[in-house]
Design brief:
Strand content: 15-25%
Largest sheet: 5 strands, mixed
Distance between the termini: 75 Å
Low-confidence stretches: none
Order of helices and strands: HHHHHHHEEHEHEEH
Mean pLDDT: 91
Structural class: alpha+beta
């Protein structure tokens, strides 16, 4: 038993040393997960637990994106471990969103995609956001308009218009995500963009852009419309 403990502690120290050397950049995912589990479960061999998790959820992203309840279905994972694994994704998401705190203006499509991807890249269902802008493109407010299930989002045009008017916006930018990672706008995306553009113009408010986010990247629906001469 003592020799087993020494062997386990030596293995854990080697993993820590590897992480300190280069953040385990070239290590397989199960080793990285094993190191994390060894920190939060200090008195147990966690190699098998790391394999159990990856076999169940396939990828590291799958592991940390799973709900605590689902994680606890895996052999060797209790409530505390499930919460701490789930917290990785929550903290990462909060950190990404916090990057937008220093963004004061959105001047083009690339800046809009970067801004909205911080909100949307980790979402598993569709969400629709809007940003209201002053005439110099500085940000007034960011609003969550609606959340969907799977690949459907309820686009509330009345709420978009109300937010734009209340914020005294000169222009707005809309953004939603495609969890499927297919960035191409659907017929519904095009129709909605045309509709909201026309409605806002009647209020003397300019639709500066509507972007679709897929992970860290995205496209402009308005640019697609211009290319294919939608009106």
């Amino acid at each position: 038993m003592a020799n087993d403990k020494l062997s386990r502690e030596g293995h854990r120290q080697r993993m820590r040393n590897a992480y300190l050397a280069d953040y385990m950049e070239n290590a397989p995912d199960h080793n990285v997960l094993e190191l994390f589990l060894s920190v939060i479960i200090p008195r147990k061999d966690v190699k098998e637990v790391s394999y159990n998790l990856l076999n169940r959820f396939k990828t590291l992203d799958g592991v940390i994106s799973a709900s605590p309840k689902t994680l606890m279905e895996v052999d060797g994972v209790g409530e505390s471990t499930a919460i701490e694994l789930s917290l990785i994704s929550t903290i990462a998401k909060r950190a990404e969103i916090s990057r937008n705190n220093s963004v004061e203006a959105l001047n083009n499509t690339d800046e809009a995609i970067e801004y909205f991807s911080n909100f949307l890249k980790r979402e598993k269902s569709e969400k629709l956001y809007m940003v209201t802008l002053r005439s110099n493109n500085t940000i007034i407010n960011t609003h969550l308009i609606s959340s969907g299930i799977a690949n459907t989002v309820n686009a509330d045009i009345q709420l978009i218009v109300s937010n734009a008017i209340n914020d005294k916006a000169s222009s707005v930018i809309l953004a939603h995500n495609h969890p499927s990672f297919n960035a191409n706008p659907s017929a519904e995306d095009i129709s909605f963009t045309i509709n909201i553009k026309n409605v806002l113009e009647k209020m003397n408010i300019f639709l500066a852009d509507h972007v679709i986010i897929t992970g860290d990247s995205g496209i402009s629906v308005l640019n697609i419309m211009k290319k294919f001469k939608y009106k």
